[in-house]
Specification:
Elements lengths: L3 E5 L4 H12 L3 E6 L14 E3 L5 H11 L3 E4 L6 H6 L1 H22 L3 E7 L22 H20 L2 E7 L1 E3 L17 H10 L5 E4 L11 E2 L1 E3 H16 L5 E5 L5 E2 H12 L5 E4 L14 H7 L8 H8 L14
Parallel strand pairs: 1-2, 1-4, 2-3, 4-5, 5-6, 6-11, 7-10, 8-13
Antiparallel strand pairs: 9-12
Bound molecules: nicotinamide-adenine-dinucleotide and uridine-5'-diphosphate-glucose.
Uridine-5'-diphosphate-glucose binds next to helix 6 and strand 8.
Length: 331
């Protein structure tokens, strides 16, 4: 029988990619989403329960109704910059959301949870690339809320036996390799979509936030990972929990760093168009460099990023922002 998985935030950028892959690989995904930033049409035929994860009885009712055996918890507010100016919303939605989710899961007797954590929990890393045991000391409210959620999961394991995999993604990017869905955040604040929009003339110049970081070209460095690679990792994490594997915290990254200027150059190469830029002050809450050591995810889940080179990420994302692109043939 196909196992049913409740996917909170399933209508979002990463969640919808995971839902499609789950369905293709023999699971029965059910999205649970309040559509605050997600899109119903990103899910195709996959069922959606419209609800809020802060509402524990609604979570429990959805788990019971669909007889779900596990949860993937994507639902959250996820903008680093916004979290600095609206921290109350982040604590309410992300930590309040985890409280509601865990209470709903307990009521329904579901003890397997895959959680979207983030490299933002590490703050300014003491060494690079970042390993999972390195100190987690966030420098923005978004990172604080995600770290609190990780701790809640650990406490629930001790008391209630809730097993979990906390996946600390680095920067999600790209689009569905077969052209079925792309990144549609509104407002869009992420670097790659904004660089692609600037290149197509859909928006003004790209603003580069900070050119005086202690990095080779003065701009921030991030580790970009393709959304389809992320989706694959979730399926491996689910299988690990279904096979009674122990709770884990894992980095999900490519292991390679790209600066803001590297992204600009790569967008120009892939699209054949110039990216107009303006240099601005640093954005509060941004660490200078975040790159993953992906070894533990490889060892414990057999996960390796396969589509996370910049050329593939940009080739898949470009058509969603007014460029010609090239999708993979037939899913
Ligand atoms: N995008 C990245 O680079 C990145 C990196 C690390 C971690 N993450 C995490 O991955 C997850 C998904 O990110 P994304 O980029 O797909 O974001 P997204 O905004 O596209 O998706 C989030 C989804 O959650 C839903 N949602 C939000 N609050 C909700 C609530 N209270 N109840 C029910 N649904 C709710 C939204 O409607 C949306 O569909 C988030 O938890 C985010 O923190 C993202
Ligand atoms: O117009 C822009 C937008 C971004 N940046 C820079 O580009 C880098 C990447 O920024 P962005 O694409 O906004 O991603 P992050 O702020 O790194 O946050 C993403 O990646 C985090 C992990 O690093 C996740 O936890 C978050 O949810 C996700 O939004 C940062 O140095 C930004 O300062 C610019 O210079 N100009």
């Amino acid at each position: 029988m196909r196992s049913t998985v409740l996917v909170t935030g399933g209508a979002g950028f990463i969640g919808s990619q995971a839902c499609r892959l789950l369905a293709e690989q023999g699971w029965s995904p059910v999205a649970f989403d309040n559509l605050s930033t997600g899109h119903r049409d990103a899910l195709g035929e996959i069922p959606l329960v419209r609800g809020d994860v802060r509402d524990a009885p609604a979570v429990a009712a959805a788990l019971d109704r669909y007889d779900a055996s596990a949860i993937i918890h994507f639902a959250a507010k996820a903008y680093v910059g916004e979290s600095v100016v609206q921290p109350a919303d982040y604590w309410d939605n992300n930590v309040g959301g985890m409280i509601g989710l865990l209470a709903g899961a307990r009521a329904a007797g579901v003890t397997r949870i895959v959680f979207s954590s983030t490299c933002a929990t590490y703050g300014v890393p003491g060494r690079l690339p970042i390993r999972e045991n390195d100190l987690q000391r966030p420098i923005n409210p978004y990172g604080h809320t995600k770290l609190a959620c990780e701790q809640m999961l650990r406490d629930h394991e001790v008391a209630y036996g809730t097993r979990h995999v906390a996946l600390r993604y680095f920067n999600a990017a790209g689009a569905d390799p077969w052209g079925r869905m792309g990144e549609r955040h509104e407002p869009e604040t992420h670097l790659i979509p904004l660089a692609l929009r600037a290149a197509s003339g859909q928006s003004g110049p790209l603003r580069i936030f900070g050119t005086d970081y202690d990095t080779p070209d003065g701009t921030c460095i991030r580790d970009y990972i393709h959304v389809h690679d992320l989706a694959r990792a979730h399926l491996l994490a689910l299988r690990h929990l279904e096979e009674e594997g122990e709770s884990l915290a894992l980095n999900l990254g490519s292991g390679r760093g790209s600066s803001v200027r590297d992204i600009v150059a790569a967008v120009e190469t892939v699209t054949g168009r110039a990216v107009p830029v303006i240099e601005e002050a640093r954005r509060p809450g941004d660490p200078p460099v975040l790159t993953a050591d992906p070894t533990r995810a490889a060892e414990s889940l057999g996960f390796r990023a396969e589509m996370s080179d910049l050329a593939t990420i940009l080739r898949h994302a470009a058509p969603w922002f007014g460029h010609e692109g090239r999708h993979e043939q037939a899913a």
